[in-house]
Amino acid sequence: MCRLLAITSASPVALEDHLRPFAEIARTSREFQGHGWGCAWQDEGVWRTSHSISPVWEDDLGRFGRARVVIAHARSAFRDEGIAVENNMPFVEPPLAFAFNGELRGVRIAETGRIGAEKLFRFLLAHGGAEGLEGVRTAVRLVGQRTRYIRAMNFVLGGDGRFVVGSSFGEDADYFTVHAKRGSGLVVVCSAPYPGEAAGWTPMANGALEEIPWFS
Fold this sequence. Notes:
Layout: E1 3-14, H1 15-27, E2 37-43, E3 46-52, E4 66-74, E5 91-93, E6 96-107, H2 116-126, H3 133-145, E7 147-159, E8 162-167, H4 173-176, E9 179-183, E10 186-190, E11 201-203, E12 208-213
Helix pairs in contact: 2-3
């Protein structure tokens, strides 16, 4: 399954400084994360994006500048299907951007989309996800009611001055637990602690749903 990253900072950070450890997490993952990747960052209130079919660890990460709000995603395509750059997250429907990591089995949601993650994004938006934490909570509950088994449903929904981060899984806690690192003027959420940085990272609880305001 995929890997995801979200950052909010009080001052602009060099994207390369965070994308390089994220790329190493993807490269060394026990599940292949090389079906492309994407990045979205805020630039004067607008999401700018970059998507590539190359593995993140093979891309030129030095080409990125600085930003205060970032979402990145490395893709492991389900059953190696739908490998195309347009299927790489983050998906953006202004003012929101979305990245997903997980697998829903027997899910019954009637939404358009090329892949399951895009359908899930549209379902969240259609059922209150654009309204903040409580709206997302309602939409997530509906997804649970319409899904036979949630192997994992980790996601970041960013926009309107906040991230809403969800983490839930039915198995393999070591792999699916999302971690957060919080410091003065910086919050980083990632599928795993950065390599060599075990200290300072806190695992999110299974079933957690948290709103993280962006630094103003």
